């Protein structure tokens, strides 16, 4: 197990890709803290599965749209688990709106959760790791839309483009402390957020034509990439984005 004796925090880790990441890190030996806005059936089920793997695990509620909650989340993780080695900034939201119709409240929510939260959660994590003598890794769950335009989701694309540059900057600043920072950029992944797509066969078929691999990704596909970046196998990798999209990025076209 490549992450034995490590403690990981996965924001938005109660369902979908976040759940897949949390379970994979536990499978690799890590103890795991999952986060969501509040306790619910998804958080209880994910925690149950983590504990069933024989790992230490807990759930901490925090609304990452608020900086104080970002900082509290890291502090409570350390208080409950004794340390923190791996941070996965997975929580994210999106808002469908044509640019000419977009509202400030929607823009603010998307940027707060997708970009500001990773900034301040990572800052709290890095400060702790430096105090401990350095070392550790940050992995951001970005998107192919850090590169790929997505009409009617301008705020989402802006947040993911910002996350790409944030990872590069933090990688340079934190490398002297032994802290690595990378992004994972999923393409079209089969998760609850894409349920509407699953229910539209014609739309799904057009999307699949843009994916050379011929299928949607699964949470396990992204989780495997995160587990790799969190491990010693990736100890010389920082400031980069690992794209997990079945080839979509280089073949996609809006129709």
Automatic annotation (TrEMBL):
Q: Where is the Ketoreductase domain?
A: 6-187
On whether Heme is a keyword of this UniProt record, the answer is: no
Say which domain of life the source belongs to: Bacteria
> Does the keyword Hydrolase feature in the UniProt annotation?
no
| Keyword vocabulary terms for this entry | Oxidoreductase
Q: Which family does it belong to?
A: Belongs to the short-chain dehydrogenases/reductases (SDR) family.
Q: What is this protein called?
A: Glucose 1-dehydrogenase
Origin organism lineage: Bacteria, Pseudomonadati, Pseudomonadota, Gammaproteobacteria, Pseudomonadales
